[in-house]
Each structure stands twice: as structure tokens, then as C-alpha cells.
Amino acid sequence: MKKIILSVFTVTALIACKNSSENSENEAEVKVEEKEEQSSQEGDWQHLFDGENADGWRAYNGEDGEGLPEGWIIEDSTLKSLGKGGDIGGDIVYGEEEFGEFELYLEWKISPEGNSGVFYHVIEDEKYDAPYFAAPEYQIIDQLGFPQELESWQSIGGDYGMYDPEYNEDDLKEIGEWNSSRIKFTNEKVTYWLNGKKTLEFEPWSEDWQKRKEEGKWKEFPDYGKAKSGLIGLQDHGSFTWFRNIKIKKL
Known about the structure:
Elements: H1 2-39, E1 46-47, E2 57-59, E3 72-75, E4 78-82, E5 92-99, E6 102-110, E7 115-122, E8 137-141, E9 179-185, E10 190-194, E11 197-202, H2 207-215, E12 230-234, E13 240-250
Antiparallel strand pairs: 1-13, 2-5, 3-4, 4-13, 5-12, 6-9, 6-13, 7-8, 7-12, 9-10, 10-11
């Protein structure tokens, strides 16, 4: 009888140790995420939009100094797309400076059934009809209310057409509420964040990256993702989208 009791206590102790270990790992993970989030609030940030004017912003493949195209306005200290764009046309870029390795932070909200995105390493050329011909995109979308069924590679916080995001539907904000997004790009690793939680990470230009490009969405776009620096862009994909607190720092 004593042996049985001792066995029960032994198993209980082992389970407790395992749970304690798992909790420690989870706490460590949370601390890493908190540290990452804290880093986004420190350092020398360059504001790309101050809430008052749109200096530096213009149409993709447009001319410097021409200002916002007709599909974009400043409203209540935000940059707002009016939903006049589509698969081709309507996107804007910050044309004053290119960025290679960087950390980008911005806040956004979107209208019901809306679709938008954030581009980086944008290259302008007459042979490209839109930024996505060459530039990666951080996906912004009404994940739960979009009228068509979404593939995982089309989902919120993902690297559109390349890397699927990890997120919890219970943590998604209601449509009309503000979200925060962060992109940290280095030549060794890329991480995307949504509302303070990491959605994905990958190694740019790796064998895995190249395989995904050649076999997936971008196999017919030879220049996709090749650039190691470029402009920052915002997408108008036919819906109202609001952006604010857009800032970046070089790494």
C-alpha cells in the first residue's frame, strides 16, 4: 500500500514539475515579446506622417512634390484611403527616402469587408503596374467579415502570398477599432507583429523563401522581393482604410 501511495506522489510531482517547466517557458516567451514590444517604443524614430500634412506621400510611380492622389485625404489626423483603388492603381508611397533594414510601426483601422496592406522595399518603374509586382506586403484585411473565404496566405498579419500568420481570432479587434502593426526587417530575419503579438518570422532570400516564391503566388513575378531597399507604401484596395502614427527607424 505504501508503495502505491509513493507512486502516486511521484507521478503527481512529475506532472507538477512538467507544468512548472511549461509555465516557465510560456513566461519566458511572454517576456521576449514584451521586450520586443518595448524596443519598438525606444530609439530614434522618423515620423513619416505627423497627422497634419502628407509631405513626402504621393501616388506610386508618381512625381515627387505632387502630393496625395485624389483617392487619399487627411481626415481627423489620419491618412485615409477612399476606396477608389483596386488590384491596379490607388496605392501611395513615401517617396522621399528608401529604407533597407528597418523597423516600421503604424496604427490602422479598416471598414467592413475591407482589404489593404503595407508595402516595403517598393521599386518604382513603368514596367510595374503596382507595388506588389516587386514589393513584399504586410496584409491588412477584415479577417472575419471579408465576403470571400480567405486562404491562409491572404490572412491578416501575414506576408501576403508567402508566409502564413499565426493569430488568435479571439484577439482580433472589432472592425472600426484601431490596430497596431510592426515590421522588423533585417537581412538575417524578418518579423511581423499585430497588436503586440508576433504573427510570423522568416529568413529573407533563403532557400525556403526562394522555393515559396517559385512555386506560389509570385512565380510569374520575376522581380518580386529581390530589392534590398526601397520605399514604404500603403495600399488602397477598394475600401476605406485609416492610418496614423506611421514611424520608422533604420537598423
